[in-house]
C-alpha cells in the first residue's frame, strides 16, 4: 500500500510499504477514506520528538471502513464506517475507566522509553507518533491496523460526509477539552485563545458553545485571524500590537478570565511585549521561544485558568511563575482524552450546531502530501487544514 513515511528531520515521503495485518485478536484493519495533517505532525517533521525512525508511517487523524476484524472484536464488523481517536487506549485500566484515555496504562509497550526520555511516562500510545508513544504505524496511508478495536473506533451511522466527522479524531475534541478545562462561567467569562491554527479554531468555537461571553484570538497569520473573526472572535495580530496591552484594553484592565495556549513549543520567538520587556530588564531574565505561554500567564485574570492544548516537550525555562502564583492561576494541560468527547461532539454535529469542515483549506492525494507538509508548516497559501484522500 501507499503511505506517508518519516524519512528524517524535515523529510517526509510517499513509499510503498507492506499492508498491515491483524496481530492480535482485538485488532481491526481499517481501509482509510480520509486522513489529515496535524500541527502535532510538525513536531515530528521538525525533529522535536525523539524516537522517530526512518520509514515510520505518519498520521493520527483518520477514518475509514473496517475491512477485517480479529476473533475477539465484538462491536465492529466488516463494512462499518468508523472514526478512530488518535490515542490508543485499552479501555479497562484504572485511567481509561476514569475517562482519562490518553493516560492509558496498557497500550504503550514503550512507556519506559518515554520515562527515560522525559523523566515521566507519557501515558498511553498514539498512532503514527514515534516509538516512545508505542511505535504504532499511522493513518496517512491506505490501510491501518487499529489495536483495541472495541474501545477506540466510533461508528458513523448517519450520512454525514467524511469531512464533517473526520476531526472528531483529534482537533475538535482537543479544542473542546481546552475550553472545557477553563470552567467558563456562561455569559460572563472572556476567553483568550493564542494560536488560530486548527486547534485554536476549534477552541474558539468550543468556548462559545460553552457560553463564553467574548473570545479574543491572537496570531499573526491574516487568513487564520479572519477565520477566527468568522466565529465571532475579536482578533489581535501580535506582530502589529503589544499583546498584553491589547488584552488589557479589551477586558477593561482585568485580563481575559481564561487563556488557552493553542500554540505550543514552536511559538515564534517574537518580542515578549512591553510589560515583559520591563520585567526582563528588572529581573535580568532571558526569554526564548515559549512566547505564547508567557503571554498566557501574564495576561490571565486573577483566579483564571491557563489551559494548554499546545504541546510541550523537554524543559521550559524562565516562566513568569511569580505572576502565576500571585494571581492564583489554575493550569490544565495534556493530551486530549479523545474517546470521551466523540459521542457528545458527534451529537452536536448531527444537531447542526457546528460543521467542522469549515477549517479545511486544502484537499489532496498522498502523493501531494510531502509538499503540503511544508505549505502547512510555513502557513503558506492560506493553508489552515489539509485533508488527504489515500485513494485519489
Ligand atoms: P498550527 O501550527 O497550525 O497552529 C499554531 C498557530 O500558532 C499558528 O497559526 C501560528 O502562527 C501561531 N503562533 C505561533 N507563535 C505564536 C505566538 N507567539 N502567539 C500566538 N500565536 C502564535 O498547529 P495546530 O494544528 O493548530 O496545533 C496547535 C498545537 O496543538 C500544536 O502544539 C499541536 O501539537 C497541539 N495539539 C495538541 C493535542 C493534544 O492532545 N493536546 C492534539 C492536537 C494538537
Ligand atoms: Zn492531531
CATH class descriptor of the largest domain: Alpha Beta
CATH architecture annotation of the largest domain: Alpha-Beta Complex
| pLDDT averaged over residues | 93
The gross shape turns out to be globular
Head-to-tail CA distance between termini:
13 Å
Count helical runs.
Answer: 13
Q: What count of domains describes the coordinates?
A: 2
Describe this structure in words.
Helices cover 28% and strands 21% of the residues. It is α/β, with parallel strands linked by helices. It is built from 13 helices and 17 strands. The longest helix is centred in the C-terminal third of the chain and has 13 residues, at 338-350. The strands form four sheets. Strands 3, 4, 5, 8, 9, 16 and 17 form a seven-stranded mixed beta sheet that branches. The mean pLDDT is 93. The chain binds nicotinamide-adenine-dinucleotide and zinc ion. Nicotinamide-adenine-dinucleotide is lined by residues 38-40, 42-43, 170-171, 174, 194-200, 218-221, 224, 238, 262-264, 267-268, 291-292, 309-311, 335-336, 379.
List the helices and strands and how they pair.
Layout: E1 2-8, E2 11-16, E3 28-37, H1 39-45, E4 61-69, E5 81-84, E6 87-88, H2 94-97, H3 111-118, E7 125-126, E8 143-146, E9 154-155, H4 162-165, H5 171-180, E10 190-194, H6 198-209, E11 214-219, H7 222-230, E12 234-237, H8 243-250, E13 258-261, H9 274-283, H10 291-299, E14 305-308, H11 321-327, E15 330-333, H12 338-350, E16 362-365, H13 369-377, E17 386-389
Parallel strand pairs: 10-11, 10-13, 11-12, 13-14, 14-15, 16-17
Antiparallel strand pairs: 1-2, 3-4, 3-8, 3-17, 4-5, 5-9, 6-7
The structure holds nicotinamide-adenine-dinucleotide and zinc ion.
Amino acid at each position: 500500500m501507499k503511505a506517508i513515511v518519516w524519512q528524517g528531520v524535515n523529510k517526509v515521503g510517499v513509499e510503498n510499504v507492506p499492508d498491515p495485518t491483524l496481530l492480535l485478536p482485538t485488532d481491526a484493519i481499517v481501509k482509510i477514506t480520509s486522513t489529515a495533517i496535524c500541527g502535532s505532525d510538525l513536531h515530528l517533521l521538525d525533529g522535536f520528538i525523539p524516537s522517530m525512525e526512518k520509514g515510520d508511517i505518519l498520521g493520527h487523524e483518520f477514518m475509514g471502513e473496517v475491512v477485517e476484524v480479529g476473533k475477539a472484536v465484538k462491536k465492529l464488523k466488516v463494512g462499518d464506517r468508523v472514526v478512530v481517536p488518535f490515542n490508543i487506549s485499552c479501555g479497562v485500566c484504572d485511567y481509561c475507566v476514569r475517562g482519562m484515555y490518553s493516560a492509558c496504562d496498557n497500550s504503550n509497550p514503550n512507556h519506559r522509553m518515554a520515562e527515560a526520555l522525559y523523566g515521566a511516562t507519557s501515558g498511553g500510545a498514539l498512532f503514527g507518533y514515534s516509538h516512545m508513544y508505542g511505535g504504532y504505524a499511522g493513518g496517512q496511508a491506505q490501510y491501518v491496523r487499529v489495536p483495541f478495536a472495541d474501545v477506540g473506533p466510533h461508528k458513523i451511522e448517519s450520512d454525514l460526509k467524511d469531512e464533517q466527522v473526520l476531526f472528531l479524531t483529534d482537533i475538535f475534541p482537543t479544542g473542546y477539552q481546552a475550553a472545557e478545562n477553563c470552567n467558563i462561567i456562561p455569559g460572563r467569562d472572556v476567553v483568550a485563545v493564542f494560536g488560530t491554527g486548527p486547534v485554536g479554531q476549534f477552541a474558539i468555537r468550543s468556548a462559545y458553545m460553552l457560553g463564553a461571553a467574548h473570545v479574543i484570538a491572537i496570531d499573526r497569520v491574516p487568513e487564520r485571524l479572519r477565520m477566527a473573526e468568522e466565529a465571532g472572535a475579536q482578533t489581535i495580530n501580535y506582530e502589529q500590537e503589544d499583546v498584553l496591552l491589547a488584552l488589557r484594553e479589551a477586558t477593561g484592565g482585568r485580563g481575559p478570565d481564561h487563556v488557552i495556549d493553542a500554540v505550543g513549543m514552536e511559538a515564534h520567538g517574537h518580542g515578549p511585549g512591553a510589560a515583559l520587556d520591563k520585567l526582563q530588564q528588572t529581573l535580568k531574565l532571558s526569554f526564548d521561544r515559549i512566547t505564547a505561554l508567557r503571554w498566557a500567564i501574564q495576561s490571565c485574570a486573577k483566579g483564571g485558568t491557563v489551559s494548554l492544548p499546545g504541546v510541550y516537550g523537554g524543559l521550559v525555562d524562565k516562566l513568569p511563575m511569580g505572576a502565576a502564583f500571585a494571581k492564583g492561576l489554575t493550569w490544565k494541560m495534556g493530551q486530549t482524552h479523545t474517546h470521551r468527547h466523540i459521542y457528545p461532539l458527534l451529537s452536536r454535529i448531527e444537531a447542526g450546531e457546528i460543521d467542522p469542515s469549515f477549517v479545511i483549506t486544502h484537499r489532496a492525494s498522498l502523493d501531494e502530501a510531502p509538499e503540503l507538509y511544508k505549505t502547512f508548516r510555513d502557513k503558506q497559501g492560506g493553508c489552515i487544514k489539509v485533508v488527504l484522500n489515500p485513494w485519489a
